Amino acid sequence: MLSTPLCLLFFFLCLTTTFSSSLHASSFSTTQLCSHEEAFALLQFKTSFFINNTTPYPGRCNTYPTKPYSKTESWKEGIGCCSWDGVSCDNVTGHVIALDLSCSLLFGTFPSNSTLFLLKNLQSLDLSFNDFRLSKIPPEISQFTRLKHLDISSSQFSGQVPTEIAHLRKLVSLNLSNDLDSNSPELILETTTLRNLVQNLSEVRELVLRGVNMTSANPRFFMNLSSSLTTLGLSESGLRGNFPNSIFRFPNLKIFYLAGEGNLTIDLPSSNWSSPLQDLILDVMDCGRRLPESIGDLKSLQHLLVGCNLGGSIPTSLANLTQLRFLSLRDNHFSGPIPALIGKLSQLTSLSLSSNNLSGQIPSSLANLTELCFLLLSNNQFSGPIPFHASRFSKLIFLDLSYNLLNGTLPPWIFTLPLLRFLQLNHNQFQGQINQFQQKSLIWLDLSNNKLQGSIPNSMANLVNLMYLDLSSNHFSDLVESDMFSAPQNLETISLSYNNLSVKMNVHANFTLPKLTNVFLSSCNLSEFPNFLRHSDGLQSLVLSKNSIPGNIPEWICEKDDLEILDLSHNNLSGKIPNCLPKSLSVLNLQANYFDGNIPFVFPKGCGLRNLNLHGNQMNGPLPKSLVNCGKLEVLDIGNNSIEDTFPHWLESLPDLQVLVLRSNKFHGSMQSTKESLSFPKLRVLDLSNNDFLGPLPVQYIENFKAMMDLYRDEGSPEYMNVSSYQYSLVVTMKGFEYELQGILTIFTSIHLSYNKFEGEIPDVIGKLSSLKGLNLSHNNLSGPISPSLGNLVNLEWLDLSSNGLAGKIPDELVSLTQLEVLNLSNNHLVGRIPQGNQFSTFGNDSYEGNLGLCGIPLSKSCNGIGTPPSSFQEKVELWRFGWRVVVLGYGCGVVFGLLMGYHVFRTGKPKWFVSLFDGQPSQRRRKMRKARRLVQRRS
């Protein structure tokens, strides 16, 4: 998604141009011929390289002053070398003193014995923006003893900067800058070389080391630079520690860049900014709590970019910087409103305050900034309508107000700005209809995630240069046909998803958008496949989910060799999935259709698939083992099909697998692994529910779920799993309900093994999964006690162990689960008192039903046989009093009844069994009775 970084890139390119022009020696024409030796040396140097017209060159080559071209083409024998392109000679001696071969398409290895080193009188050398194929900087460069200006930036040099470069004591300007993209080579400036360089360059005024690796260097070295220093560029250099803020007291410093990753800090001075700074760029980890009011003392400042976690309010003293042309305070923590006084900066051409905590209304005084080309206020909390009633931004090129709380209708002037190319108003609360589009210059339009309504105007056809269009997630209605998109033949991305539209783009047989690469038409009431896309050769993303498209996947999809994202989920597609789908796919989402048959794919080696989602179809057969060739696979969801197989142990070899869903299929057998290797280290979501797995729970796997063990594994804010701008979706059972997540957060973790035939005890190792959000082991044959180790799952939000054979007490350790919202322990053999405290006070009877041995709150069965325990102290006192009344009353009645019955029993001697209870020991009584009977019988 194109955003404010483009603005910054444009600015950096402009500044690079400024620096480079100051680093070059001035060229001048001369009629005097150069020496034969110098001409020969230059011609030999020319033969060392090829001319590469195919590789795109970055930076100023493509922007200023002209496109790159081969300057050495004019170098020919018989013509004085002083008239050759890029060559400058001394007016008196005729010696070559300056060589400017920047952006000259030179391609090849730079030889260490290059004849270029024969130019002993060279004072200026510019080899920037060429491709020297990872060559080392030759130590022989020290032979240029008269060199004052050296620029070898962005020319694919690599390795260590030679110590000999410190011998160029006459250098006034040095630029070793490297490209900042991930494919650029690494140029390393070691501590010793940097120390010698700083000490020896006593006359240096301009030093630019952007992108040079200086991780081992001490930032304090730079304080030894000459007091004549005017330019210091140290961006993206890996410097660490605290950069001395005495740099702001260098008497001649005009340009200072300090930006990059790592633990680099600098303290902004609260006063005494003695440097005549014109350009100040600070983008480091920290530079103090606030931007000091004294920043307003830098009266000469023209460019100010500060992004280093500053807070507080934006100082009003910025209004004193009347020469300021570029102001960026993005990526900080500024709060409060924008000072209205910023409207006094009449020279400002670019204003970026994005990604802060600013609030309130956008001040109407910004309308006074009539020179603005870039206005970027995104990712804040601005509210209210856009305050400008008439447009004074006739020069505006880039307007970004996205991700705020702005509301009201869109003012008509926005759609009439003559030079506007980028318009981003997405993720706000704008209402009403869109006015007619008039500007033909617009190439980027994003109005998504608002409350806009009505029809999409047919004037969309006026945007003939449009490349990006996103109107998704609004309330647009009516029929959209191909006519309004027939004019912008450069359209690359179109998104109309999640509106109330009916989209028909197959009306005209000749309708084509040849450059279309990204198509997002989810929930657009499509009733047929948009077959015009067969003519879009570079198609990369095709998302047609949640429509009513019937039939088979068209064959032309197989011809899209660049297709990376294919989402046809939630349609009425049926039949077999074609096995010819493009090998370039990263995402294949066909869930919630009617596909049947086996999974047909033979996944090739080097398969780049990252997300395979076939959930909710009628697929059968086994899971193809060739899936192991997809080493980048992150999500595998084949749930709710009829796949019949054993557990695919071979998935262990997928190092990046994070989500595995096999639920509601016909998987069977044991899950015990025979390997001892570390398997599934990144797995965060495991759903095997509703299958026929048996045996003990897979301890060998659980103990390797490292991603579920480390709560603080991810630094910064949680992110959604995605490919490019496409977010993964997932059907999950969460807290007893089924959801379809439209995004999978990297902190979401759950294990769902319910409705299988697992047996044995719950292993203690589960207690190590401290990041786990949900655990469902219900409807199995588990036995034994509930493991107390579950009390370590401090982030658990739902726990379901119901319908098993668990026995024993509920561990008191579970009370420590303060995040628990849903608990189900029903239908087990649990006994004893239910633990009390924290979340346990919120669970009802249904959490425990079917456990006849449990007692205590919230059950009606108490643990002391009295009944439901009282809920308050007074109720306990009353129950105590009532209990003793019953006891006393019963005791009194019992005494009277006992005396009467005793008199009767002992008076009559009946019943004998009762008399025997009180008349001596039973054995003695029986012996006496037998003797008495024998004596009577003898006498008779």
UniProtKB/TrEMBL annotation:
Pfam families: LRR_1, LRR_8, LRRNT_2. The chain crosses the membrane at residues 882-906. It is found in: Cell membrane. SMART domains: LRR_TYP. The keyword Nuclease does not apply. The keyword Ribosomal protein does not apply. Keywords: Cell membrane, Glycoprotein, Leucine-rich repeat, Membrane, Receptor, Repeat, Signal, Transmembrane, Transmembrane helix. Residues 37-90 form the Leucine-rich repeat-containing N-terminal plant-type domain. InterPro entries: Leu-rich_rpt (IPR001611), Leu-rich_rpt_typical-subtyp (IPR003591), LRR_dom_sf (IPR032675), LRR_N_plant-typ (IPR013210), RLP23-like (IPR046956). It is a single-pass type I membrane protein. Its main location: membrane. GO terms for cellular component: plasma membrane. Residues 1-20 form the signal peptide. PANTHER family: LEUCINE-RICH REPEAT RECEPTOR PROTEIN KINASE EMS1-LIKE-RELATED (PTHR48061), RECEPTOR LIKE PROTEIN 30-LIKE (PTHR48061:SF2). Belongs to the RLP family. This is Leucine-rich repeat-containing N-terminal plant-type domain-containing protein. It comes from Rubroshorea leprosula. The lineage of its organism: Eukaryota, Viridiplantae, Streptophyta, Embryophyta, Tracheophyta.
